[in-house]
Amino acid sequence: MSRVTVAVRVKPGASRTRVGGRYEGSHGPALVVAVTARAVDGAATEATLRAVADALGLRRSTVDLLTGRTSRDKILVIDPAPAGLIERIDELRDGATG
How many folded domains does the chain comprise? Predict the structure, then answer.
């Protein structure tokens, strides 16, 4: 399969890492990703990439940042995207937590 982009809204400094929920952001409906890392020196961004990969059962190397290095609103790219990925992202965004 080809690559897939996904909008995320990052909540740095959370009490625990959690992937799930919906945020109507600047890039459209976004997947909410709460991470324990603080927004310092890219730590929250790296934690976000790892959390999304883990939640989707992917290797970290398949998830990369497309836009939003210093923003809470980010666009990630997953390449290569396995079959069923879009459905799993939709499940997480619409309520299931991972």
Answer: 1
